[in-house]
Amino acid sequence: MELDGKVIVVTGAARGIGQEFARGLGAAGGRIVAADINDCSATIEQLSAAGGSAIPFRLDVRDISSARDMAETAVETFGRIDALINNAALYGPLRGGRFDAIAESDWDAAMSVNVKGVWNCCKAVVPAMRQAGGGSIVNMASLAATYGMPYGLHYTTSKAAVIGLTRGLARELGRDRIRVNALAPSAVLTEGTREFFGDRLDRALDVIKGGQSIQRNLAPSDLVGAALWLVSDAAALVTGQTIAIDGGTVML
Ligand SMILES: NC(=O)c1ccc[n+]([C@@H]2O[C@H](COP(=O)([O-])OP(=O)(O)OC[C@H]3O[C@@H](n4cnc5c(N)ncnc54)[C@H](O)[C@@H]3O)[C@@H](O)[C@H]2O)c1
Fold this sequence. Notes:
The protein is α/β, with parallel strands linked by helices.
């Protein structure tokens, strides 16, 4: 599944899963816009060292004009946009807790980045995808939504919203040959996961692994193949789907 120079915007590409998406899709021949609210130079260095073609972009997904500037920069640099990986999210920095103990400001922050941010980036790139004759959007959902993770209801709810957005948008954009799908991974070992679980990390990873059919925790590299397939023309008739990458925890 070579990507033949497809132009792929990856949000949240400064670290973790987004960095791995940028590296993996770049290695498969994609031209990458690595976008994040934080500095993406480490991601760009990794990609360039492997001979890939990539630019960084400072993006705040909460801000539609920032998202539109990103799309404009992608088109100015590479001439088109073929795919968007909506990976940026508030995850690591969110504090868990009982549903009635979550701070209203944390609830609003989760919705603003994880839901509105996805909507903003879709709005920003779709005109360029229409111009290119089609495209592929891959949204990061989570096992939190498909399983129903407790004690982090702001995060769980935001990821369930991403699944609904994926389905509704897939129906709206089919006539434009733009596909919209979601990935729903279980816990992946990233800095974000370390921050989210804190000193409960080992116990949480054990519990999550225990619920999997294949009993191994995920690494970011376990997600790249699915993203590559969804971006590629091999998945030309796949849209509106949420693909679980969870070692067989929730069987959709
Ligand atoms: N790690 C997991 O276990 C796991 C499991 C399921 C789903 N996910 C999802 O996968 C994605 C990546 O997870 P991760 O563990 O790499 O997360 P992470 O917290 O390590 O990285 C998130 C990235 O998003 C960026 N970001 C945050 N707010 C932003 C904003 N306003 N604008 C632009 N960029 C912003 C951060 O700077 C960071 O680089 C997230 O959507 C997460 O919800 C993660």
